[in-house]
Amino acid sequence: MAERAFTSDSFYLYAGEKKLMGTRCLSCGKISCPPRPICIHCQSDKAEWVELKGKGKIAAFSVIPYGPMPFVKEGYGRDNPHCSGIIELEEGVKVAGQILGVDVKHPDNIKIGTPVTVDFTERGSWHYIEDVYKVRKVYPVFKVA
Fold first, then answer.
1. 116: pLDDT strictly greater than 70
2. What pTM did the predictor assign?
3. CA dist 59 to 42, 66, 94, 110, Å?
4. ∠ CA 141-29-48, rounded to 5°
5. Alpha helices (H) in the chain, listed in sequence order
6. Are 81 and 64 in contact (CB under 8 A)?
7. Closest C-alpha among 62, 49, 59 to residue 17
8. What does the pLDDT average to over 92-119?
9. Where do the structural domains in the chain lie, given as residue ranges?
10. Cα separation of 142 and 86, whole Å?
């Protein structure tokens, strides 16, 4: 695997390759996703990239009736809310992301513990300046398994 800096830019480059990547600390073995150049558990700066399976379960969620520019541009809003949440991956790390395939019109039907798998979607960047927004990026999202 090509060596890349442990940055969000690298994370999104891997997402463009349909890979959910994190970092594994070489000192304590803990995994972080998105990647971190310094371990939040032991503060070591020794790490390696690790590809995550992308399988997990919903640990927390929120149905949101508004959103940042990429969501608004794709039709999300008060009449078409989106679901975002925290996914606990099989590797034990928790990652935030959009959750697809749930009933956002009836949030009571969305259940903690529901199995999900990673998928990838392309959107504009997270910016309100139109020229910056036009830059397309691939983001990991999670679909009900």
1. yes
2. 0.88
3. 25, 22, 8, 11
4. 65
5. 8-16, 69-73, 130-133
6. yes
7. 49
8. 97
9. 8-51, 55-144
10. 10
